[in-house]
Amino acid sequence: MATTLYSATMSLDGFIAGPDGDMSWLTPHIAPNPLVDDLIPRIGALLVGNRTFGGDDPYRGTDRAGKPFGGGWDGPQYVVTHHPRPPADGITFVPDVATAVTEARAAAGDRYVNILGADIARQCLALGELDEILTIIAPVLLGSGTRLFDAPGTPPVQLEQLSVSHTPKAINTWMRIIN
């Protein structure tokens, strides 16, 4: 069965997007990353939040805009939205996270379901449907925006470190949920 993985590049102070979903901060930090290059072909499906799907793109203004991983990945995407519409170009719009996880896991087979979007990842965690987290920490402090994980009042989530690696532009931390 597919493993669910929340992956995100974040600032050192824990933000994955700037104020109002701004992703332009990420553009200067996009660089070769062997861990990500190895992960991409192991992704069988994407599970994406509607704000992430329709949001800002760090590849804006290039021929890589609007494409998962800047065009490095192609496959089925499941977008969670309260206003579903008919599927198009490998994108299925799903009304709730539980249904989206089920469909994405089935599509991914034994590969990863890669989760994109902080709120969707938080909901997957609450449902017991989040297996692993990969953070790519960029050398920048944003000060505000969308946090990697924002769930005030919830108990701590225990993690097991699977790997830590670095590139000249990032530190990769891969963890497994253990509780």
Brief sketch in words of this structure:
The chain contains four helices and ten strands; from the N terminus they run ββαβαββαβαββββ.
Describe the structure.
- The chain is of the alpha/beta class and 179 residues long.
- 17% of the residues lie in helices and 32% in strands.
- The chain is built from four helices and ten strands, in the order ββαβαββαβαββββ.
- The chain has an eight-stranded mixed sheet with strand order 5-4-3-6-1-7-10-9. A two-stranded antiparallel ribbon has the order 2-8.
- Strand 9 and strand 10 form a beta hairpin.
- The longest helix is centred in the middle third of the chain and has 12 residues.
- The chain is globular and about 40 Å long.
- The protein starts with a strand and ends with a strand.
Q: What is the element layout, followed by pairings?
A:
Layout: E1 3-11, E2 15-17, H1 34-39, E3 43-49, H2 50-53, E4 77-80, E5 91-94, H3 97-108, E6 112-116, H4 118-126, E7 132-138, E8 146-147, E9 159-167, E10 170-177
Parallel strand pairs: 1-6, 1-7, 3-4, 3-6, 4-5
Antiparallel strand pairs: 2-8, 7-10, 9-10
